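Lecture notes, continued. The same structure-token format from the folding unit now serves as the input rather than the output. Read the line below as a description of shape only.
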């Protein structure tokens, strides 16, 4: 009888070359059924090829985004170096602001319209609409710090201060949870301060109709009156298309009202176009009441929404605007 290795060496009727190679490898390495293993591996490759083809492009895109963000940082390296030479936390703020500004530019094509309305120095109270996740305000703070060299303090909800690991971040970026007297003190000291009167309730309950949910809140107006500072309304176009909340459902709304924690799930992270619009400052008027000033501010913010936001918001339209066309906002 002629064995397999001998058959591989016999003329035209010998076994195919690949089969012979498999037999030789089996003999050398002492493996049995090597051909079955290779067939199984080939089957697995065939099964998982679609998945591999889906994953690899996204991995490449992820690396590209990291590269682009790094380039944004490198572009401002001299500014970073100068910041660290003066104060540790100023350098840290500059670094984080640069990272966020890079992410804003790459992922959302973020823009701020009306930056000139933010004073170069001196106090102002910024009142903004609260998205499901206020990522627009993070971007805005980064812009303010980079382009005006100012830190915009912000009033945050109490629950944020209880999130593990957040204390240092909140301290470095000067977040506070009140009270009213503290807000007045900050403004009188010449700083910028931002407040969202709707807060977490507006974040959870408002939806693609962009309804303002302030209730009867007028404390922010009293702060502006006591500190004798102007109010600047602020709204970000498509912020509800970037992230949305299920907090408007009966269950999650009841949970929030009961425990004052945002239990509602959110979804999103869509790379929609984001534009922040700053309205004309509402000057200090000693004759106006807190109720009147709160209503005046709400009307100014609603005017920004009416002018710059499609109602109801549409995620697909916002994505198309980001990637396929630029629309002129009248």
């Amino acid at each position: 009888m002629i064995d397999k290795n001998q058959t591989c060496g016999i003329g035209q009727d010998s076994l195919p070359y690949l089969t012979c190679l498999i037999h030789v490898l089996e003999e050398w390495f002492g493996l049995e059924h090597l051909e079955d293993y290779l067939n199984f591996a080939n089957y697995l490759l065939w099964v998982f090829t679609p998945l591999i083809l889906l994953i690899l492009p996204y991995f490449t895109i992820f690396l590209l985004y990291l590269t682009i963000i790094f380039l944004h940082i490198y572009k401002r390296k001299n500014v970073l170096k100068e910041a660290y030479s003066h104060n540790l936390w100023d350098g840290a703020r500059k670094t984080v602001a640069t990272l966020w500004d890079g992410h804003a530019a790459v992922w959302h094509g973020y823009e701020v319209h009306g930056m000139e309305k933010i004073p170069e120095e001196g106090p102002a109270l910024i009142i903004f609409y609260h998205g499901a996740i206020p990522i627009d305000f993070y971007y805005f703070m980064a812009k303010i710090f980079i382009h005006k060299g100012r830190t915009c303090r912000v009033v945050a909800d109490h629950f944020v201060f209880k999130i593990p690991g957040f204390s240092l971040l909140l301290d470095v970026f000067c977040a506070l949870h009140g009270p009213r007297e503290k807000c007045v003190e900050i403004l009188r000291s010449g700083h910028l301060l931002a407040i969202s009167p709707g807060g977490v309730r507006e974040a959870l309950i408002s939806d693609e109709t962009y309804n303002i949910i302030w209730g009867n809140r007028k404390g922010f107006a009293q702060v502006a009156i006591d500190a004798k500072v102007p109010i600047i309304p602020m709204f970000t176009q498509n912020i509800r298309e970037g992230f949305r909340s299920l907090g408007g459902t009966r269950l999650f709304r009841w949970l929030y009202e009961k425990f004052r924690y945002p239990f509602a799930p959110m979804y999103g992270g869509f790379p929609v176009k984001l534009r922040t619009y700053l309205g004309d400052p509402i000057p200090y008027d000693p004759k106006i009441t807190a109720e009147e000033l709160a209503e005046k501010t709400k009307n100014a913010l609603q005017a920004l929404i009416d002018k710059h936001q499609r109602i109801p918001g549409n995620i697909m339209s916002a994505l198309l605007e980001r990637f396929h066309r630029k629309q002129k906002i009248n």
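Point for the exam: Residues 144 and 150 are 6 Å apart (CA to CA).
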